[in-house]
Structures
1.
Amino acid sequence: MGVAKAGVVGDERYPDAVRVRLFMDNLKTHDAASLYAAFEAGLARSLVERLEIHYTP
């Protein structure tokens, strides 16, 4: 699952959450720029503010 899809899933499953923590391995790393490529700037920004992305070794 990419960052963009994770952001949408976070909005759907946890609409009241202030932060959604996303843990990903380093094999396929994505960053916040993926959200801007997938969504309009306003929606992407709101997802960036809610997602807390962690990369595992």
Note: The beta strands are 20-25, 51-56.
2.
Amino acid sequence: METKEMEMLYEKAANILNEMIPEAWNKILLYTEVSEEGRKVYIFIITPAT
């Protein structure tokens, strides 16, 4: 996949995650894996310490 296309996909994912998370956050860590056996997605949300 071309770099420009990947950048567009990451930006789209970031916008969707931003809309889905109802509270303030500092960082989102996103790990995805696609293989012949299946797909995995892990999302870690780092929130501000209060």
Note: DSSP finds one helix and two strands in the chain.
3.
Amino acid sequence: MTTVALHSSAGKWVMVTTILASAMAFIDGTALNVVLPALQ
């Protein structure tokens, strides 16, 4: 496995991608908990 420094260009993209994926998972879980009771 390759180590990527956070101050490099690749490191910034890794951080952005990780943060966006985490936010998408959180929003998906929240929306599912809100919408699911309405669908039943």
Note: The CA atoms of residues 32 and 39 lie 10 Å apart.
4.
Amino acid sequence: MTFIRDRWGGHDDHITDEEAAAWRAKHADRMEPVTQAELEKSRKSASH
């Protein structure tokens, strides 16, 4: 996730192991890829 954020020009703090584990647990049953719109929404909510 940190790589993706960096590639999109994000200069936020790096994703911690705990944050990645929480995201994986929350989305464990997800079968479809994450959309760009969802990532943008997540990025905006994380910056507040």
Note: The helical segments are 2-7, 17-26, 36-46.
